[in-house]
Amino acid sequence: MAAPLMEELSEYLGSPEPAVRLILSIFLGYLFAVVYRKFLFHQSPLVIHLYHTFSGLALAAFNFGSQVYHSALCIVIQFLLLRLMGRTVTAVLSSFLFQMSYLLIGYYYTATEEYDIKWTMPHCVLTLKLIGLSFDYYDGGKEPSQLSAEQKNGALPEVPSLLEVCGFSYFYGGFLVGPQFTLRHYQKLVSRQLSDIPGELPNSVLPAMKRLSLGLVCLAIFTIGGPHYPDTYYLTDEFEAQPFWYRCVYIILWAKVYLYKYVSCWLISEGVCILVGLGYNGTNEKGEPQWDACANIKMWMFETTPLFTGTISSFNINTNAWVARHIFKRLKFLGNKLVSQLATLVFLAIWHGLHSGYLLCFSMEFIIVNVEKQAMVLVKDSPVLTKLANSPLYPLIYVVQQFIHWLFMGYPLVPFGLFTYDKWLKVYSSVYFCGHIFFFAAYLILPYLRKALVPRKGDVKRE
Fold it and tell me: 289 pairs with which residues across the strands?
């Protein structure tokens, strides 16, 4: 009965059936959250874990049918690794290798040249959760003085039960599209610590509805704008026949619309997390409750920042925080920040999938971010550029900066969205590899600009 109904609904909406099932599942999280608030908030941890487990399993089965066994198998094996190997480096490495290998094998057998909503989509979220779980359990065996503040917040003092791991993994507000959160944070939810009124229902309905409303606006923008800026247009003769400036502007507009696909899902899912209390993040200096613990997007910064680093900081926040905590900072032993950053971006590329487009996207991010950092230091150190940045001309500079920012944010997103070599190469050729030329040229020119625009220390002292 459900299958024909979903076929009819997807045909009516003009969207693929897997996409319709996914968005319906994200909205169903609100129903599960209301039931939790109404009937289960004061129940025992056992009941809450069972509820989260079976509600998440229901969503997984609704979207992926019998393939739900992939997540179940990985959760059970992760639990066994914790139990049998304990707090050891071997356990962490085994967990990392098994979970990543399982995900990559899944990509290998299921990936096509299009964006697919298959069991591997939520599984990439689950993979980070389970690897993070092994790190947090390992950290729980260390002395507090050996841990950073972040590690202390996530460290597990004792091994969790299988049911606890299942509830954490299948929680309906984060199973399908994220966000990432620690088991320790989930335990606080179950023990009713995540509330502005300790032990009582959180006053989180209004904050949740605000994120839901914003998510619906973004979903509307993507739904309306998506057909006007499709990925497929890049590969047409018509696109190639357009003037260069038009192709560049298309990349900007396409990138903005394309990212709303992710932003809308994150905002709607965040609303679910806030509604149950998982989004509670303590109070600010004014004593006002904060509900951004599960925020995956800083909307105002995302829309207004003229910096690449600003967009990266405001986008996919919890995943970036996970990668920084468990990959980048744990590579400190390499003794080189750039090498650690590059290794982290390679991990992110592989985690997203096996297509060459992911690797190119994150390699471009590495180049762009480091060039921008050099440029920002130059502006800070140069009296002339600092004066110009603070002059009445700044609004004009901001407009130009935003154009460059979004053109070259869209530029690495092209291979991310088109996946395969033959597709993204065709698009890059049509815009004459302008992103590569711009940033490699900037990398070569910046040292000379620094010599010309930054006074030497001896000259400053004489003045």
Answer: 283
- The pLDDT value given to residue 2: 64
CB atoms within 10 A of CB 246: 11
Q: Are 192 and 233 in contact (CB under 8 A)?
A: no
Is residue 459 very low, low, confident or very high in pLDDT (cuts 50, 70, 90)? Answer: low
Q: Which helix (H) or strand (E) holds 189?
A: helix 183-190
* DSSP reduced 3-state for 411: helix
* Helices assigned H by DSSP within 353-432: 356-381, 383-389, 394-418, 421-430
Residue 171 near residue 233 (C-beta atoms within 8 A):
no
Give the rounded percent of residues in the chain with a pLDDT score beyond 90: 89
The answer to whether residues 136 and 156 touch, using CB atoms and an 8 Å cutoff, is yes
| Average pLDDT over all residues of the chain | 94
* Distance in angstroms between the alpha carbons of the first and the last residue of the chain: 83
Alpha carbon distance 311, 365 (integer Å): 11
Q: Which residues are catalytic?
A: 316, 352
Residue 427 pLDDT greater than 70, yes or no:
yes
Q: Is 244 helix (H, G, I), strand (E, B) or coil?
A: helix
Of 276, 277, 313, give the one whose Cα is nearest residue 296.
313
Supply the pTM of this predicted model: 0.94
